[in-house]
Design goal:
The structure holds two protein chains of two kinds. Chain A is an alpha/beta fold. Chain A contains ten helices and ten strands. In chain A, α3 packs across α4. By secondary structure, chain B is mostly helical. In chain B, α1 packs across α5 and α5 runs antiparallel to α7. The relative contact order of chain B is 0.16. Classes of the chains: A alpha/beta, B mainly alpha. At the A-B interface, α2 and α3 of A face α4 of B. The complex binds adenosine-5'-triphosphate (ATP) and magnesium ion. Adenosine-5'-triphosphate (ATP) binds next to α1 of chain A. Adenosine-5'-triphosphate binds next to α1 of chain A.
Chain lengths: 259, 261
């Protein structure tokens, strides 16, 4: 049995009257690519932010490599957690007052106290991994949406944590770039022994990279399994989602809400 | 009727207490975090340059004309008693004790307070503050602490500049426009105005600097909801800072009078 990387137990979260998570339980194992899929607005980003400790759930328990995320007390614990896990924002969340290279090197300079020259070399390396050489001195506002997303990935890689949460890293990227990013995620798992949780809408790319896939719908995980198992699933929600059909239980629920 | 009135008052009081409670906690954190490593002195220099020197020309021009207009307004009254040479002392004292700190503070609020709220607010709604947290960089220490300290120092220095330029404005109007005797003008300033008047104003300036930065950063830090939220935070930051400056101006004056300052 592999070591447990992330354990989420009975997680519940509401915003006002809106119940986003109605009790979510799953485990991500060490050195695994775990893909979370689900319709827009089902709380995939909120789920990742709770794992990253940015949003407090109403109840439940989250453990990341033995660290109890919801009860981080002392500062050393917080720092250890940050070094273990990082989150790539769906929007990128780049610091728009700094150039690209400083965004990537930010952690090394501001937190690790590295000299700017040394940090810049590292940043250049990670930028080149993502096909962004030559953008070092641009500002985030001068980049395209897809480029911003890749800078955000480079920034996360530069922190070199054990576990990375990617929030839709490939949406807005062209097919070639998507394939490159998919390969990068597999490389992170195989060569650098990282654990990756990836939120994705892209069914094809998900099947390509995932060790296991979880389908999130209406506040619950409706199915977890290997890509093969998901493909063979008889669950109507899963079937509608992966086949991208306009008719089915997902649409029915949406219509119920509107009506 | 009565109940709904009480409810309204109650919710207003709660809102008021909540605001100042948050303000107190945030200020306390921002002040004390300065003494924790890493110090990041460069950031202090950066904000000192933006808050301090950006406002300098505006404050110099405003003070020159304010000093001038005091002389202009008081001339006819003093002229009746043949006491025109006392104008210098009037300008010096009113600038030093009251007008320099308040004017500088209001101008810094308009220029830098609004910028602080807008910048931090934008960082909040675009998740940049979350990203800072993600990298284990304390956003309060990184964003608010340097602004708070430099705002205090900048406002004290700007007030000194305003004192001097305002006095020059009064001098130009009195001596060059109305032909008041130069020697008497300077002599009476020396006799009547004291250094304690200047200190009185500088204490105010320091408090105002603290209020501007802490209130503006507070509104920025708790911004919600997109571009509209940023706009609201910015407006509220400027309005609240300005009101706080004028209310605290009275309170500080009252307190300092108890100590004969
Ligand atoms: N800060 C917040 N305050 C109130 N409601 C929120 C907040 N953040 C998210 N929500 C709500 O939670 C729900 C889930 O949002 P979330 O961003 O996690 O969706 P998502 O699954 O990531 O969607 P997408 O695939 O479009 O990114 C949404 O209905 C949203 O309205
Ligand atoms: Mg999302």
């Amino acid at each position: 049995m592999k070591e447990k990387a992330i354990v989420v137990e009975n997680l519940k979260k509401s915003f006002g009257k809106k119940e986003v998570h109605k009790g979510i339980t799953f485990t991500v194992y060490d050195r695994e690519v775990f893909v979370v899929m689900g319709p827009s607005g089902t709380g995939k980003s909120v789920l990742l932010k709770q794992i990253a400790g940015l949003i407090k759930p109403d109840s439940g328990k989250i453990t990341v490599y033995g660290i109890d995320v919801l009860n981080l007390k002392r500062e050393e614990e917080v720092e250890r957690f940050r070094e273990t896990l990082t989150y790539v924002f769906q929007s990128g969340a780049l610091f728009d007052s700094y150039p690209v290279w400083y965004n990537v090197a930010f952690y090394l300079i501001e937190k690790k106290g590295l000299k700017e020259k040394e940090a810049r070399e590292k940043a250049d390396y990670y930028l080149s991994l993502l096909g962004l050489s030559g953008t070092q001195d641009l500002y985030p506002s001068e980049l395209s949406g897809g480029m911003r997303k890749r800078v955000a990935v480079a920034r996360a890689l530069c922190m070199n944590p054990k576990c990375i949460l990617f929030d839709e890293p490939t949406s807005g990227l062209d097919p070639v770039m998507t394939a490159i990013l998919d390969r990068l995620i597999l490389k992170l798992r195989d060569d650098f022994n990282k654990t990756c949780v990836v939120v994705s809408h892209d069914v094809k790319s998900a099947f390509r990279i995932a060790d296991r896939i979880a389908i999130l719908f209406d506040g619950r995980i409706v199915e977890v399994g290997t890509p093969e198992e998901i493909k063979r699933s008889q669950n109507p929600i899963v079937k509608q989602f992966i086949n991208g059909e306009p008719e089915g239980p997902i649409t029915e629920l949406l219509e119920q809400r509107d009506g | 009727m009565l109940i709904s009135l009480l409810e309204k008052i109650g919710s207003y009081v709660i809102g008021f207490l909540e605001f100042w409670g948050r303000w107190f906690l945030l200020s306390l954190k921002a002040v004390s975090l300065a003494f924790k490593r890493p110090f990041r002195l460069k950031r202090y220099l950066y904000y000192f340059a933006t808050i301090g020197s950006d406002s300098l020309p505006v404050i110099a021009i405003t003070s020159l004309f304010t000093g001038g207009v005091i002389a202009l307004e008081t001339y006819s009254a003093f002229h009746r008693f043949n006491a025109e040479y006392m104008i210098g002392a009037v300008v010096a004292i009113s600038m030093a004790r009251e007008l320099s700190p308040v004017l500088s503070a209001l101008l810094v609020t308009a220029r830098s307070g609004s910028a602080m709220a807008a910048e931090i607010g934008t960082m909040r709604v675009t998740e940049q503050i979350d990203a800072l947290e993600m990298m284990a960089v304390n956003p309060i220490k990184f964003l608010i602490t340097p602004r708070l300290y430099t705002s205090v120092v900048s406002l004290v220095l700007l007030t000194i500049v305003s004192d001097i330029v305002g006095y020059i404005g009064g001098y130009l109007v009195s001596v060059h426009l109305f032909g008041v005797n130069k020697t008497l003008y300077l002599r009476y300033t020396q006799n009547l105005a004291e250094m304690s008047d200047v200190y009185h104003g500088l204490i105010k300036a320091a408090v105002f600097g603290f209020l501007i930065a802490s209130i503006s950063c507070l509104y920025g830090y708790y911004t919600r909801g997109g571009a509209k939220g940023v706009g609201e935070s910015t407006t509220k930051a400027v309005v609240s800072s300005s009101i706080a400056i004028l209310i605290f101006d009275y309170l500080i004056t009252y307190l300092l009078r108890l100590f004969n300052l």
